[in-house]
Design goal:
Length: 417
Amino acid sequence: MKVLSLIVLAALVAGIGVGALIRSDAPNLTAFANNVEAFGGLWLNTLRMTVVPLVVSLLITGIASVADTARTGGLVLRAVILFTFLIFCAAIYTTIATNLWLDIWPLDPAAAQAFIAGVGDDAVVVREAPSFGEWISSLAPTNPVRAAADDGVLSLVVFSIFFGFATTQLEASLRQSIVTFFRAVSEAMIVVVRWVLLAAPLGVFALALGVGLRAGFGAAETLVQYVVIVTGVTAGSTLLAWLIAVTWGRQPIARFTTAAAPVWAIAASTQSSLASLPAMLDAALRGLRIPAHIADVTLPLAVALFRFTSPVANLAVCFFIAHLYGLEPSMLQIASAIFVAYAVSIAAVGLPGQVSFVASIAPICLALGVPTEVLGILIAVEVIPDIFRTLGNVTGDLAATSILAGKQPREDDALQD
């Protein structure tokens, strides 16, 4: 997947470069470039068609597993509650931080218009922000199928959450049948997405060709600004998790930093929280001296359910897209987006990075009222922010474990007693 990400990144650069050259030096090839660009639109549509069934199936199976886990003990229940609180804190942080970045370093309007013109802006329909009454009434869909067809993602998420919790009240055999069905749906959709992503170099090249054709080399500047802002906000979440660990988790600064350093190295190189789990367990038990009965339960649970940077990076992407289109989401839309970001942060745990990008960000964009057409281009540079997603996740996992250890005696203290 890493090799594919690098190839996709190279295809993005090549597409913008070829499009810009055709624009300036070979205008007679414009018609040919437009035909090639159409294949990019086809690739993007095949990617987007998986979003609704993937999100719904992941939410239902994810909520069923969380509910079952929450019944297994007091520590696990406290962990789930803590994870929820920290995810909402992270969402509030990114809402403030991303918009602050964009206020300090706004996009050039002409460059933004040229950029979005290259991804089919003519097809974009921007909806007006709902009133409070409309927002309340829209939370429950009158017809979930119609909500899916109309991109009513918030009401669809609410329906999926109710359905997921309802399955936990069924007898075990019926519940297992439903969970098995939706798990099969999600696995099938992931296979489809992987197939589509195999064609990502061609799809991204075709989309980038259109961007380069209309925006020229200025498109590269917009993408650099996107990468810097999203990466900066996501990297800030690592610092936030570090602060939580040394304040709320009561970890000495030197101890936590020293223990977490090897974990950060593995996280940056693998871009996988799961691959970092053995190092996190070692850091918690030996470096942070957290009791084994807490670390051995909390850290695997955190890797399975908790992604501290999911709302951070995903909302940052959506706010950037809103700024790109010159949109100012209302507070209700932002609240809807935060709620959806929380839901998909649980639903999309364990998905490959590029699959998670599509499944997580598209629903949040729809809740925020912004178009999703540019996601096909932005996925090409996700390899850079994804490093900092993993760094923030493993730091958040260690911070949450430190908090849950609370006033429990450290291993070294217990030995001294």
